[in-house]
Structure formats: C-alpha cells, structure tokens
Amino acid sequence: MPINISLLSLGNALRAIFMLLLTKLVAFSYGPSGLVALGSLQNILGILAPVSSLGTNSAATLLISKAKQEKLNSVILTLVFVLLVGSLIGIALLFLLLSYFNNAMPANVELNVTALIIYCFSSSLYAIAAGYLQGRTLIASFAYGTIIGSVINLLFLVWAASGWSLNNTINLAVFQLAINAFVLLFILRKDIWKWLFSTKKFQFSLVGSLLQVGLFSLTSGVILSAGFINIRQVITEDMGIVAAGNWDAAIRTFPIISLLVCMPIFSRYFSSLCIASKRSELFSIYKQIMFITFIPFSLGLAIIFLFPSLIVELLFSDSFVLYMQTIMLFIIGDIIRSYATLLNYFNLASLRYTRHFIGELVFIVTLLFLISFIPINSFDQLALFYIVSSSLSLTIVGIFFMREAGNLSYI
Predict the structure, then answer these.
(1) Is pTM beyond 0.85 here?
(2) What's the pLDDT at 356?
(3) From CA 163, how far away is CA 179, in angstroms rounded?
(4) Of the chain's two ends, which shows fewer C-beta atoms within 10 Å, N or C?
C-alpha cells in the first residue's frame, strides 16, 4: 500500500506540475489578462464537469467499493447509463449558457465549443474509470494511469510553448481531462468488454442514491465555479483586469495544495473514514492527517515568508506585483481552506451530504457577499476577505465534525 500511495502522489505531483507550467506559460506570455482568460475557462469547466458527471464522482467510488462481486457489473451498467445522460445534460447546459460563458471570457478570447462538448463526455468517462479503480482499491493501476496521462499532457504543453496562440494554449486545460480519461479506459479495456457483454440488469434503485449524493456535489461545484466567475467580474469592474489577473494568481495555490496534499489523503483515508464506528478511530485518523499535513504546510509558509517575490516570479512573472505583496495572507487562507476540506471528507464518508454541501457553500457565498457589498479599497482587502471566508467555512465544518463524532461510541 505505501508504494501505491507513493505512485499516486507522483501522479498527482505530475498533474500539479502540469497546472503550474500551464499557468506559468500563460502568465509569462500574456500577463494578468491571459490568466483571467485561463481562470474563466477553468471555472466554466468547473460548471460543466459536475453537471456532466451529475456530481457522482465520489458516489461512484463509494458504490463500487461497497458492491459485492456478483452485483458489480450491474452497478457499473447503472453508472454508465446515468453518466451518459449526465453528458447530454452537460452539453445542453453548455448551449443554454453559451452567452454567459462568452461574457465571462476576455474580449480577445473565443470559446471552443467542440472542445467543451468533448470535455462533457470526458467528465463522465473519467468518473466511471476513476470510480472503478479507486472503488476496487486498484490504486496502482489508477496511479499509473494518472502518471501516463500527466506525461502526455506535459508533452502537449512543451509543444504549446513553441508559440501557440492564447486560445489554443488555454484549451490544454480542456483536453487534459479527456487524455486522462482515455488512458484510464485503456487500462480497463479488458474489464470494459466484460461490462459490455454483461447480462446483469440495470438497477433502478441505485439511481436515486446516486442522484441524492450527486445533487449536493453538483450544486456545490456549480455554485463555487459560478461564484468565482462573478467575483472575477466584480474585481475587473472595480479594480481593472490587472487586479483580476492578480486575484486569479492568488487563488491558484489552493488547487495545487488539493492535488499534492488533500487528494492523496482522500485516496488513503476515505475508506477508513467510511467504516469508522468509534470516536477513538476517527480521532486517530485525523491525528495522522494533521501530522502528515503539518510538515509541508509549515515548510511552504517558511519558504514563502523568506522569498515571496521569488516565488511569485517563478510561478507567474514579475507582472503580478499585487499578489507578490499579499502572498502570505493568501497562503494562510489556502491552508485554512485545506483543513476545512480535509474535515469535510468525514461528512462525505458518513453520508452527511447536506453538511458537506453547506461546508462548501459557506466559503463561496461569504466571499461573494464580502466582495460584492463591501467597497474594495486595496488588494490586501481581497486577501482578508479570503481568510475570513475560509475561516468561517472551517468553523462550520468543524462544528459539524464534532457533532457527528459525538454520535459515535467512544470505545
């Protein structure tokens, strides 16, 4: 198991490197306005992805992990049907909101509708493949697939550095998921033939469970992404596109932390959280999580405190002066938000979907409210808003965690 987790960490590290280099390429070549374009596109993908998968990524892993061998093919058949419908809904939403999506992009950037349609189907395919590999604890296969997909994406990124346009470069963010999905499906090619010719029946009873779980994940994903689109537009209107680009730089560290820290912990401890029946077991798991995360978070803070300008120039460029001056505040907000995410995994594992949804919702609603209704006088103020929103989210999730832990037997 440690080797598998190390492989998975390597795969997530390569995905993080891809995100960093793509961001660096866009920021260095096109400045803050280019980063606004990339951030807007990624938020659009953040709306389409949960809709296309109907928010069932975690639910798929959970159902497959609990399915008995004789019912496994039936569960997968049900997932395939539900996610195919989700892809069609995602494509319909794309055309319905196309005007809104185009308005979110800078004037000099056009959306590639064909690429976004491929992305909708890829979201569903990835949910099935990743759900099966993680649900059946085939961590090594999932890790190898993640590594191979990331290497392919990195090769495309090297090609893009030779002089692609901004439009084509940011579309690498769209095709990244498609490449990862098809690599995982290739690994599962023998199992796919079994599923296609399976005589097992469709389980209508699972659809309700899937949609119940997916509804909360879908809604939180859509609200979070739409919230960031609206926040970016408010900052652009109030402070200009340069400030909006610096804001995009500031909020990009959290996805990297999620890939390098939160996602490996999710893969390692989620099944343990699902079966934890005693407070002592639960607290033991989170003690391990706190110990694992304390070292990288502390080291990261120390490095950023000592070399803030160097870090921003390495990640982006020297054009991002506003972020350079406030990076410590934003990183503190990122760490607080990361601990809220880690605690919120327990709400997901204990099937408290409403609480998980509220934990996600509190952050973006608070942030959107503060930025929309309180006059912004400086970029430092945005950093403080980010810390306040992350802290409130952690507080709410912490209260839910302690209440749920109180329902478990102590011994």
Answers:
(1) no
(2) 72
(3) 22
(4) C
pLDDT for the residue numbered 330: 92
- The DSSP line for 202-249 is P-HHHHHHHHHHHHHHHHHHHHHHHHHHHHHHHHHHHH-HHHHHHHHH
In angstroms and rounded to an integer, the radius of gyration of the C-alpha atoms of the chain is: 21
Cβ atoms of residues 406 and 274 within 8 Å: no
Q: Which pair of tokens denotes residue 309?
A: 């300008």
Chain center to CA of 97? 22
> In angstroms, how far is CA 369 from the centroid of its own chain?
22
CA 189 to each of CA 6, 56, 116, 124: distance values in angstroms, whole numbers, following the listed order: 25, 22, 25, 16
Tokens of 246: 């610096």
pLDDT 10s digits, 191-208: 776 666 665 565 666 666
Which portions of the chain are predicted below pLDDT 50?
Answer: 410-411
Euclidean distance between CA atoms 199 and 220, whole angstroms: 36
Q: What is the pLDDT of residue 131?
A: 78
Q: How far apart are CA 175 and CA 25, in angstroms?
A: 17
Residues 119 and 70: their CA atoms lie apart, in Å, by 32
Q: Partners of 409 in the beta sheet?
A: 278
> Which structure tokens are listed for 85?
């419908």
Tally of CB atoms within 10 A around 57: 23
The secondary structure of residue 319, as a DSSP letter, is: T
End-to-end Cα separation, the chain, in angstroms? 27
**What local confidence, expressed as pLDDT, does residue 144 receive?**
86
Give the C-alpha separation, 86 to 61, whole Å.
17
Residues 6+ apart with CB under 8 A from 115: 171, 174, 175
Instruction: Give strand pairing partners of 278.
Output: 409
Three-class secondary structure of residue 409 per DSSP: strand
3-class DSSP state for residue 360? Answer: helix
Q: pLDDT for 392-406, tens place per residue?
A: 999 998 888 777 666
Number of CB atoms found within 10 A of residue 276's CB: 21
Helix (H, G, I), strand (E, B) or coil at 278: strand
The C-alpha atoms of residue 130 and residue 84 are separated, in whole angstroms, by 16
